[in-house]
Specification:
Layout: H1 24-33, H2 40-50, E1 52-56, E2 59-68, E3 71-81, H3 83-90, E4 98-101, E5 110-113, H4 114-123, H5 140-144
Parallel strand pairs: 3-4
Antiparallel strand pairs: 1-2, 2-3, 4-5
Length: 145
């Protein structure tokens, strides 16, 4: 028989501070507050169940695989942080044909070849602090058509 789980006492845990300022997750929560028709926690639950959520101090992203006219791609619902880190996470996932996203809830889906998107991200200059937010207000019907 397996012993019952015991919580590690908080006084034994000494977390390292990996960043200064607000985390990418906190930026995402704050950004969603400015979107009256979209609930952050509804999206978060949806992407935990039907997609992928990447959370690090310097990156927060929600994305899912979609099918559009028989071609499979990634739809990025929201990303904030270093896009190069997001691309690194994709390396362990199936390679799909395109990346789709909307900007600032405009309901216009942009579709970019995934290899072109990766080349664009890799050409970005800077120290990894690339901030990109694409809080997209696209309904499920739009994603599947």
């Amino acid at each position: 028989m397996v012993k019952a789980y015991r919580k590690v006492p908080d006084e034994l845990i000494h977390p390292l501070i990996l960043h200064t300022g607000d985390s990418a997750f906190e930026h995402a929560v704050d950004h969603y507050k400015s979107l009256p028709d979209i609930n952050f926690f509804d999206d978060l639950c949806d992407y935990h169940i039907n997609g992928f959520v990447v959370t690090r101090p310097d990156l927060f992203a929600m994305f899912k695989p979609i099918d559009r006219d028989g071609v499979r791609g990634w739809f990025i619902r929201y990303a904030y942080g270093d896009l190069r880190a997001l691309i690194d996470h994709w390396r362990i996932l199936p390679e799909l044909e395109y990346v789709a996203f909307c900007r600032d809830c405009d309901k216009i889906m942009r579709i970019v070849d995934v290899k072109a998107f990766i080349r664009w991200v890799n050409k970005l200059k800077g120290n990894g602090n690339i901030k990109w937010a694409a809080g997209a207000a696209v309904d499920q019907q739009t994603l599947t058509n």
